[in-house]
Amino acid sequence: MSETSSPELAAAGPRVRPVPAVTRSIAILRLLGRGGEPMTLKAISQELGMVTSTCLHILRVLVEEGLVKVDPGAKRYSLGVGMLTLARSVIESNPFPALAQPVLDRIANAASVTAIGVEVAGSDHMVVLALSRSNAPFRLHVDVGSRFPALISATGRLVAAFSDLSDKELERRFKALRWDQAPEFAVWKADVDAVRRQGYSVDRNNYINGVVVIAVPVFDSHQRLTHALVAAGLAEQLDAARVESLAAELQGEARALSQLMAARS
After folding, report:
1. What are the start-end ranges of the H helices in 112-239?
2. Which residue ranges does the chain devote to CATH 1.10.10.10?
3. 70, 66, 38: which is closest to 56 by C-alpha?
4. Euclidean distance between CA atoms 8 and 255, whole angstroms
5. Three-state DSSP state, 164
6. CA distance 15 to 3
7. Would you say 100 and 257 are in contact if contact means Cβ atoms under 8 Å apart?
8. Taking the CB of residue 255, how many other CB atoms lie within 10 A of it?
């Protein structure tokens, strides 16, 4: 039997063979970006469970390429200015953050929620590209560049609804997710089916207890889900009526963004 003859394998996409050196390099860059503070070789290798000599070899290459810098005296590593070139290239080639930011600012201020713009990176992850926080006491621990499993929370229901993943593959991935209050798969799947009808998704208390997350899709010119607009706030302040009203507002903004993105492309 060929690899592509299985429906489950076909739904999951082409097999990607692991390349340890690349995976470890990316892990180091993410760790240094997350922490903010320079780290020693020992701290990096211990945090990532990496052999110290292997970690050192990779760090030397990253330093040579300008992606990491090292303080010769303190022997501590941090992200290098070469990362700025890569980041600028991403920003300049992706109009979504600039187009979404004014929308997120309006929604955050008007509804006293945290408003987020994410890019759907295939069926594996979503990445935060834009963010706006209100003056309300509620703060969601998320930053631009944060990555999350693609199927988690309200946005995950969107991804599931508009993907080609089989029910079997969805269930497998669902079981690996971490929630405060995990829904039953059958309940979650019913939510996913409802997303296709209503055009938005809601997570109440599942992902984070006491928090409501609303997500609406942004499609490209081929009607493929590429981004999402997300609003998160305290459950006690977002009753069913407010959720419906906010979802409708987000949908209107998402449609306008979809048209702008299509025009730019």
Report:
1. 153-161, 167-175, 185-198
2. 3-82
3. 70
4. 32
5. coil
6. 9
7. yes
8. 15
Identity of the residue numbered 208: I
Residues of CATH 3.30.450.40 domain(s) within the chain? 94-264
Q: Which CATH class is domain 3-82?
A: mainly alpha
Which tens digits make up the pLDDT trace of 81-91?
888 777 766 66
Location of structure tokens 């309940």: 187
> Which of 238, 215, 250 is closest to 112 using CA atoms?
238
Going by pLDDT thresholds of 50, 70 and 90, the confidence category of residue 93 is: low
pTM (2 decimals)? 0.71
Which phi and psi (to 5°) does residue 77 adopt? -110, 145
Classified as helix, coil or strand, 113 is coil
Q: State in words which class domain 94-264 has.
A: alpha beta
Q: Write out pLDDT tens, residues 21-41.
A: 899 999 999 898 876 789 999
Instruction: Identify the band that residue 15 occupies on the pLDDT scale cut at 50, 70 and 90.
Output: low
